[in-house]
Design brief:
The complex is a heterodimer of chains A (378) and B (286). Chain A is built from nine helices and 20 strands. Chain A has helices at residues 52-60, 102-112, 117-131, 146-158, 176-193, 204-210, 228-233, 238-243, 339-342, and strands spanning 14-23, 26-36, 41-45, 67-72, 75-76, 87-90, 164-168, 197-201, 213-218, 221-226, 250-256, 264-267, 270-273, 289-293, 298-301, 308-317, 321-327, 332-338, 350-355, 362-365. In chain A, the strands form four sheets. Chain A has a six-stranded mixed sheet, sandwiched between helices. In chain A, strands 13-12-11-14-20 form a five-stranded antiparallel sheet, with no helix packed on it. The longest helix of chain A has 18 residues, at 176-193. Chain A is elongated, with a radius of gyration of 25 Å. Chain B is globular, with a radius of gyration of 23 Å. Chain B contains 13 helices and two strands, in the order αααααααααααββαα. The chains are: A alpha+beta (378), B mainly alpha (286). The A-B interface holds A 24, 60-62, 81-83, 87-89, 91-99, 108-109, 112-113, 142, 156 and B 112, 175, 177-178, 180-189, 196, 199-200, 286.
Chain lengths: 378, 286
Amino acid sequence: MTQGLPKMGDMPVLIVDNISKSFRGRAALTAESFAAPEASFTVVLGPAGAGKTTTLRIIAGLDRPDSGRVVLRGRDMGGLEPKDRDIAMILDNLALYPNKTGFENIANPLRVRGRDKKEIETRVAEIAHTLKIAHTLKRLPKTMSGGERQRIALGRALIRRPSLFLLDEPLSSLDAKLRIELRAELRRLQRERGSTFLMATPDFNEAMAIADTVIMLRKGRVVQIATPQELYDQPVDREAALFVGAPLINLVPARMGGGSGAPAILTAGGSLAMPEAFATLPLAPDVPFELGVRPENLALASPESAPIRGELTDIEPLGLKAALTVRNEACELRALTTGAEARTVRIGQAVGLAVRDAGTLTAFDAQSGRNLGHAPGL
Amino acid sequence: MQTKKLSPLQWVLMLMALTVTLFPVFWILMTAIKPPTDWNASPAIWVPSEPTFVNFKTLFDPEAIREYGVGGVSQSATKAVFGSVLASVTATFLSVLIGLFSAIGISRYGDGNKATPLIILSGRMFPPAAIAVPFVIIFSNIGLTDSYVGLIAIYVAVTLPFSTWMLKSFVDDLPREIEEAAMIDGLSRMRAHLTVTIPLIKGGLFATTMFIFILNWSEFMFALVLSYTNVSTIPVQLAKYVTATAGTLYGVQAALAVLAMVPLVIVGYLIQGHLARGMTFGAIKQ
């Protein structure tokens, strides 16, 4: 399965070619393939246990794949120790040396490579300045805050200029505010240096904010390789659609209306005009499928004329926006509106819902959950 | 060190525990400085009225005790002290060295293999007396009885399960990611273990070394059955003060026991900081 390899003129920095790995008989990765082009920010996205960490560890040389190859700048990495691979990595739990100060932690990669003292001092000072951790250099990790430790680990990786940076959930232990701040900083550093980053995260928002390309992993298999926007608009299947975006996408049973007249989708106790894109889909009249509607694609409309009607059962204020829950005899739908609009309606009231942009509707196969509109190899 | 206020009940219990632990030590110390007439006087003499060093002198000069009209000591303890130091130090060093590398191997590269550590531990499941006889037979066939090489070999074999298991628990407690970070920083696997793993389990390493040394230092049975004339250790020598002609020389025995305690007390004092940290290493994970 090499469908994900981008067609590019020059060689990607990293090629992961058909990697499989199992631990004690349990498959952790199955035939994983992808590539990361020069100066790109690639994110490996997936729930816990999807194989993100294993992927990064195999690329780093900490674990050995059962089969397959890791190719870094055209060189097969098979059998090479981590130190010979021209990579830097931030491990899941940071793994700072507890008996070394901030300075010594950051300086370690240069020290073990025998660089001279003067150079080490200048470069550590430089990195510490960029990461705003100059004040922690003389302290031991146990006296630092979570964010400071995170930055020290970042500094230890960034002190070198390897071909590839591997980041295993580097922001997971931080509070929300710091996470957002640091991820912007990561993106900036990557751009400024033109480095190639590969980051693992379970958080779609993080991937969305930072990635050029997202590699979606599930149970050790690559399910989709796409830009964050593509992943959001055309998820490969139902599960991927549910994994990205909050509030969750609405998945409602639907079928194409038969008979004469303009083609329509019969769903949610109503009828929607069929979007153009659906014309090419393998949808026969009266064969059930599942319609995917993002909550932000549903708008409040007058209960008389709206294609979908129901009772408003819940309003969840989200600040600028509000999530509405609308229920009728066929299904329950979530719609995202502005906070102001939400204040015009009350729980218990009959409301109507209309689709804002029919172009973003997705159709999933009722049995397999596959996105019928997703072109393979996209 | 943190100081802690004790309740009266805790004081009493603590005193009782101290009495039970320290009374034998006190008695040995007192016996070591008693003249022969006081050794097993009845009623017991707690503190000798005329303390003497004759018992200590007799250890290295068997004739010294004759001034009290007691004879029967034929051999000086010099060889036994030398033998104990040689066998215990060498065997402890080898046991901890081999145990350290097996511990790292099992902990880091064992990959779920539960059998190997258990097989290593099974060496401790036999009563020493049960394996002593086969050892004597095997060692006499290959000419290792009454040699330090043989004695050290068996000490290493017997203590290796302890050193492996103790060190394994310390290595297990150390997150392997720290070593992996070092490998990514540019160290080979071996150098990562030598320069990162070992310094970080220093406390455990000291505690284990101390423990293994005590085991070897106080070992009696193997030394007894494997030694004739060339080899001797302090515990074997202690048994030699039970004489046919003069009865048991309690004072001389006590003097040698006091000497045997000295290195343990000194080493214990020197490393007590590490010892305490080693013992609680697993409890204070950050």
